[in-house]
Amino acid sequence: MPGTVLLLAASPVGKGCLVDAASVLPVLAAVDPAVLSGAETANVVELADPLDPQAVLTRLRAAATAPGPLTVYLAGQLQLDRRQHLPHLALARTTPSTVRYTAFPWHWVREELRLRPPGTTTVFADLYADTESWQQLAGQPLTAGDGVTLYGHVAPPPPRRTTAVPAYMKSLATILRSGYRPAAEELHQHALARSLGEGGRPGIVLAARARVPVAPDPHADITAAVQAGRHGQAAALAAQWEQAAVRAYGPASEQALHWREVGADLAMFAGDPVRSCRSWLAVAGARLGAGQSPDAPAVEAAVDRAHHQWGLIRDAARARELGVVLADLRRRVPGRREGALEHIRQHLGELGAGAAGVAG
């Protein structure tokens, strides 16, 4: 089965740039795709200095839903948003005051990779952190989720008026250009030693193997059903686990909400935006009803996904019905997407003047 490779290099334009992340892409792109992936064949997607976090999300989501092994090579810099102090991957237009709206939240990486079968996903990351991120990482190290193997290096900010180079990623790419593809952990160790030996800055080493559940843990069966096109079977499995979680922990528990989110994702994979949108709206409402903050990452993610799926609905009546609910929710959860509520109002106006009046 072919693998998928995502090459992502991102850093701000101008004086806020800590690392010339895109400089590593030509070296990585020169590596044979099969060597990058560790599979017999592979599809490669490249993102160089992207502007829009939604564009990055779309590419990551597509890569995460592809069958076969997934390998992500990520170079860039970390910054914290000023409201929630969550780490973000800075993009081309990111400044310290606009992190929340122009950078890519690190927790989106975990969100998009969480449904992949454990042990099939590897992330290599070469990151520089700004001062605030560096201080926080000392007590809160980066993770990519239980089922994901994460290797890499996070360096502190370079000296002022200095732009660093992604030494770890360049070392890794140089090793791979030889055509030799060792196991992920061995590749990581070679790249780390080589980069530090050539003057790379010591920092925080990322080395977290995927935790594969010992018990039969249902996500793998669900993923296999989706990849085989058995969407009804996948949805039925998720519903069974949701019911079990509700009985064991209650309808507002994280366990039950997790399975609702899985069901919403499965509806998306099945090409049913109505069911997916409705499910994400229910998840967001349940989280808010349980007392979670409107700017909590899980709440924002649920509303954003509901919004995305709503935009794919072709049935005008269903779109009007769910659009009114979404507009009401967007007033409470504006999210990071500028003009999100106005977009809903405009689209509702296109669907029918009466609906536009309700949204306004």
Instruction: Count the beta strands.
Output: 8
**CATH first level of the largest domain: which class?**
Alpha Beta
Q: Please name the CATH architecture of the largest domain.
A: 3-Layer(aba) Sandwich
Given as residue ranges, the uncertain stretches (5+ residues, pLDDT < 50) are 355-360
Structural classification: alpha/beta
Distance between the termini: 50 Å
Number of helices: 16
Observed structural traits:
single chain; 360 residues; alpha/beta; Serine Threonine Protein Phosphatase 5, Tetratricopeptide repeat; eight-stranded mixed beta sheet; 16 helices; 49% helix; globular
Quick gist of this model?
The protein has 360 residues and is of the alpha/beta class.
Write structural notes for this entry.
Helix 10 (231-249) runs antiparallel to helix 11 (254-269) and helix 15 (340-351) packs antiparallel against helix 16 (353-359). The N and C termini lie far apart (50 Å). A hairpin with a 6-residue loop joins strand 3 (70-80) and strand 4 (87-89). Strands 1, 2, 3, 4, 5, 6, 7 and 8 form an eight-stranded mixed sheet that branches. The protein has two domains: 3-208, Rossmann fold (3-Layer(aba) Sandwich), CATH 3.40.50.1460; 219-359, Tetratricopeptide repeat domain (Serine Threonine Protein Phosphatase 5, Tetratricopeptide repeat, Alpha Horseshoe). The chain has helices at 25-29, 33-37, 53-64, 99-102, 106-113, 131-137, 167-177, 184-197, 219-227, 231-249, 254-269, 273-289, 297-310, 316-332, 340-351, 353-359; strands spanning 3-10, 42-48, 70-80, 87-89, 104-105, 121-129, 148-155, 204-208. It is built from 16 helices and eight strands.
